[in-house]
């Protein structure tokens, strides 16, 4: 026998809201009240479920991926659970655990459908509950995807320059190199390194050095073609991959970027003082059989010659 307090909770529940109970409450007298102890599972994935549950007191938490992960939903008095297995007739898909000792009204599925036949409002409420579940699930999916993308981006971006980092370079550059080799397209790799950067850091401090690197990175990104790739390679060195660029084109692009850097200045004091820096570049044209490692080695050799030749210049490998 259901108590008046239980009838009041049922009448205000999401399932029976705005439904006239006088004609159907006699059918609810046969429903049992189940107490779920704190920490115990009401529903377990993979098992059949023959009831729809209305929470009378306490709190249930839903864990689609298992209780070792954060809860997906928190359900309290007046809300229901078990409606998905009611609709699709399949086994439970999520773990539902009592966060505290929880009393639920267990309504057999057959009785739910019988009540739907007797009260149109109940059918509308059931649809509303399902729509709310779908909206919540979609929002959670969007949030999870956004967080995943943010994490992925953070793991592949250099914090100082906002360029892609070495990890991204080592994953992405080889794919482009293989594609150019397969298509018979030309390609150059440019290794760029600031000149006397250590002296700048000693004179102005690392904050100024980082600010200048960040400014240079932004200017370089704006100066590249749409198909070009750029990443911070090692320390202060920057690697640039130039698909569809033969030796002459790659050298010309590298020299243009060298001039862009030389013209880039960053303010270092309120009185208008500024700093700039030059870069040396090594260009390694792709040859059949080259890999990212051989291109980097060739570009590094050319870069060393540019440094030895007076800096602020471009040298070509081989």
Structure, explained:
- With 318 residues, the chain is of the alpha+beta class.
- Helix content is 45%, strand content 23%.
- It has helices at residues 4-11, 25-28, 83-88, 109-118, 120-156, 166-183, 197-204, 206-223, 247-262, 292-308, and strands spanning 32-36, 41-43, 51-57, 59-63, 73-76, 80-81, 95-98, 102-108, 187-194, 229-234, 237-243, 265-267, 274-276, 279-285, 314-316.
- The strands form four sheets. Strands 10-11-9-14-15 form a five-stranded mixed sheet. A four-stranded antiparallel sheet has the order 1-8-3-6. A four-stranded antiparallel sheet has the order 2-7-4-5, with no helix packed on it.
- A hairpin with a 6-residue loop joins strand 12 and strand 13 (274-276).
- Helix 4 packs across helix 5 (120-156).
- The chain is elongated.
- The N and C termini lie far apart (93 Å).
- The mean pLDDT is 84.
What layout of secondary structure does this protein have?
Layout: H1 4-11, H2 25-28, E1 32-36, E2 41-43, E3 51-57, E4 59-63, E5 73-76, E6 80-81, H3 83-88, E7 95-98, E8 102-108, H4 109-118, H5 120-156, H6 166-183, E9 187-194, H7 197-204, H8 206-223, E10 229-234, E11 237-243, H9 247-262, E12 265-267, E13 274-276, E14 279-285, H10 292-308, E15 314-316
Parallel strand pairs: 14-15
Antiparallel strand pairs: 1-8, 2-7, 3-6, 3-8, 4-5, 4-7, 9-11, 9-14, 10-11, 12-13
Helix pairs in contact: 4-5, 7-8
């Amino acid at each position: 026998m259901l108590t008046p307090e239980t009838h009041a909770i049922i009448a205000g529940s999401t399932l029976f809201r705005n439904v006239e109970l006088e004609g159907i409450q006699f059918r609810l007298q046969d429903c049992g009240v189940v107490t779920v102890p704190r920490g115990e599972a009401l529903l377990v994935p993979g098992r059949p479920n023959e009831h729809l549950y209305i929470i009378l007191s306490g709190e249930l938490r839903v864990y689609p991926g298992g209780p070792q992960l954060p809860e997906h939903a928190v359900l309290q008095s007046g809300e229901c659970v078990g409606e998905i297995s009611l609709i699709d007739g399949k086994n439970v898909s999520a773990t539902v655990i009592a966060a505290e000792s929880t009393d639920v009204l267990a309504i057999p599925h057959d009785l739910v459908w019988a009540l739907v036949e007797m009260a149109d409002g109940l059918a509308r409420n059931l649809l509303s509950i399902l729509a709310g579940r779908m909206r919540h699930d979609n929002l959670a999916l969007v949030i999870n995807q956004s967080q995943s993308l943010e994490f992925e981006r953070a793991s592949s971006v250099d914090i100082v320059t906002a360029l892609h980092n070495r990890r991204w370079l080592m994953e992405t550059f080889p794919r482009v190199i293989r594609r150019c080799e397969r298509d018979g397209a030309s390609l150059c790799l440019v290794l760029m390194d600031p000149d006397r950067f250590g002296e700048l850091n000693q004179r102005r401090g690392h904050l100024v050095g980082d600010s200048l690197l960040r400014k240079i990175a932004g200017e370089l990104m704006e100066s590249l073609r749409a198909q070009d790739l750029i990443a911070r390679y090692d320390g202060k060195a920057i690697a640039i991959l130039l698909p569809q660029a033969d030796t002459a084109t790659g050298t010309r692009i590298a020299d243009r970027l060298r001039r862009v850097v030389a013209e880039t200045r960053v303010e270092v004091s309120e009185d208008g003082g500024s700093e700039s820096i030059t870069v040396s570049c090594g260009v390694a044209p792709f040859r059949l059989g080259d890999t990212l490692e051989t291109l980097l080695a060739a570009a590094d050799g050319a870069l060393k010659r540019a440094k030895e030749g007076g800096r602020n210049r471009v040298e070509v490998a081989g």
